[in-house]
Specification:
Oligomer: single chain
Bound molecules: glutamic acid
CATH superfamily of one domain: HUPs
Strand order of the largest sheet: 3-4-7
Distance between the termini: 83 Å
Largest sheet: 3 strands, antiparallel
CATH topology of one domain: Rossmann fold
Strand content: 5-15%
Shape: elongated
């Protein structure tokens, strides 16, 4: 078999949502599985929709996730240019060829006239097809006029790698604009020429192109191109499973997830799970495993539900798997400003106390603050505590006092701190939920924090005793 070549062909419109990055991932996985090539092509022919900085944004996102392209804007593989806007001559050449064989013609109508045709079709209760209004003779085409494909209507049945057998009647085939009056090609034309010239073997893309596929098939025939393998990915749905995921459902740009401290491995696994499973119950895959197991035939037809909780679960998993040194590098941006005077050793210890509980990196900023700064006493933490609120001030004070006495006598290593805390339970006849909560509040002034003994160990003797004393004095 010839070399497998897949492509990701985004339009640079400013946003890299889950669905588009999933398309890139699946196309990349197919290429990698067969030792083929993955190509990045920028589809920038719709000049009104261009957003500055998008191309950099797309490239940055792919790189951050490790979805490296073999050919693309800054990586020539002999099939460039990889920006459609730099390929206008190529499209015009093919357009002229179509004119020559009488499969394309200049569209002489104004948009008002086309609107009239549309209304006319509506009045006659017929679907609007441009080909029913094809001009008898056509003027010579020049830039400034749209150029239309002259279709050869017929019904089609075709095989989609994911969706299976699809079919459409001849009403799905129409004369469509291939070159706009500004001289730029439409997507419907340019991608067909590019896929052909770039020797793309698999066109992997989202649902919205199914309806136009018969038109594309008609054009492949007119140009005498072999049709590539077509694979349509299922839509990504919001968590209720009812509608297509949109920004309104909280779907973020992939770089935003990365900026919040979601690890690339988690994002890749989440994206893979949006439509793919290997038939087993395995939920998390390493990249080599994904490459080995991925198969378009195993991509589901029905919509795939996006659930941010699942992403968090995956991320917690990968956070727990990393060594502290690696995690420290990954999350170095998330320390609160107060941490700047503390050394890396201390920060790594702090990070270790949180490793089991972090869902994403950004949580670290608030959660870890108390390790770098004594927070003001918040009397509500005791007032709102179910058990502590039942104790009198004197009872609270005596619990704090005895804690100070016992901790003062302790060597500050984890084991000793643990046994000191246990003996405090015996001495005070209190339950952990009472005594430990009180000490925790004194140390952290927050309602949730890592294990108590670990917290005491990292804060150190002096700081821990000082903080317990602060609460004691406040209560006095
Ligand atoms: N430029 C199209 C888009 O961004 C690409 C569709 C395709 O992959 O063919 O939706």
């Amino acid at each position: 078999m010839s070399e497998i070549r897949t492509r990701f062909a985004p339009s640079p419109t400013g946003f890299m949502h889950l669905g588009s990055v999933r398309t890139a991932l699946f196309a990349w996985l197919v290429a990698k599985k067969y030792n083929g090539k993955f190509i990045l092509r920028i589809e920038d022919t719709d000049r009104n929709r261009l957003v500055e900085g998008s191309v950099e944004h797309i490239i940055k996102t792919l790189r951050a996730l490790g979805i490296y392209y073999d050919e693309g804007p800054d990586k020539d593989g002999g099939y460039g240019p990889y920006f459609q806007s730099q390929r206008l001559d190529i499209y015009h050449q093919f357009a002229k060829q179509l004119i020559k064989i009488k499969r394309a013609y200049a569209d002489p109508y104004s948009s008002d006239e086309v609107d009239k045709f549309r209304q006319d079709a509506k009045l006659n209760k017929k679907p609007f097809l441009f080909r029913n209004y094809r001009p008898d003779s056509s003027a010579e085409w020049h830039i400034g006029m749209p150029l239309r494909f002259l279709s050869d209507p017929k019904p089609y049945t075709w095989e989609d790698e994911v969706m299976g057998k699809l079919s459409a009647g001849e009403e799905a085939v129409d004369d469509y604009v291939i070159i706009k009056s500004d001289g730029y090609p439409t997507y419907n034309f340019a991608h067909i020429i590019d896929d052909y010239l770039m020797k793309i073997t698999h066109v992997i893309r989202s649902q919205e192109f199914i309806a136009s596929t018969p038109k594309f098939l008609n054009l492949y025939e007119a140009l005498n191109f072999t049709k590539p393998i077509l694979a349509t990915l299922p839509p990504v749905l919001s968590s209720d499973g009812k509608k297509k995921l949109s920004k309104r459902d909280g779907a973020k740009d992939i770089l935003e997830y990365l900026d919040e401290g979601f690890l690339p491995e988690s994002i890749i696994n989440l994206l893979a799970s949006l439509g793919f499973n290997d038939g087993s119950t395995q939920e998390l895959f390493s990249i080599p495993e994904l490459i080995e197991k991925f198969d378009l035939k195993r991509v589901q037809k029905s919509g795939a539900i996006f659930d941010e909780k699942r992403l968090q679960w995956m991320n917690s998993h990968y956070i727990r798997q990393l060594s502290i040194d690696d995690l420290f590098v990954q999350f170095n941006n998330f320390w609160p400003p107060e941490a700047k005077n503390f050394d890396d050793q201390y920060k790594k210890k702090v990070l270790k106390t949180f490793q089991d509980r972090l869902k994403f990196g950004q949580e670290l900023t608030d959660l870890s603050l108390f390790f770098f700064k004594e927070l003001p006493v918040n009397s509500n933490l005791i007032k709102d505590h179910k058990q502590l609120s039942k104790l009198t001030n004197d009872e609270l004070k005596s619990l704090l006092k005895i804690s100070i006495d016992e901790l003062t006598k302790t060597n500050f290593n984890l084991l000793d701190i643990q046994s000191c805390l246990n003996s405090l339970l015996l001495k005070t006849s209190q339950k952990p939920v009472v005594l430990f909560s009180l000490i925790r509040i004194a140390l952290t002034e927050t309602s949730s924090s890592p294990g108590l003994a670990e917290t005491i160990e990292v804060l150190g003797k002096e700081e821990s005793l000082k903080r317990i004393n602060t609460l004691l004095e406040t209560l006095a």
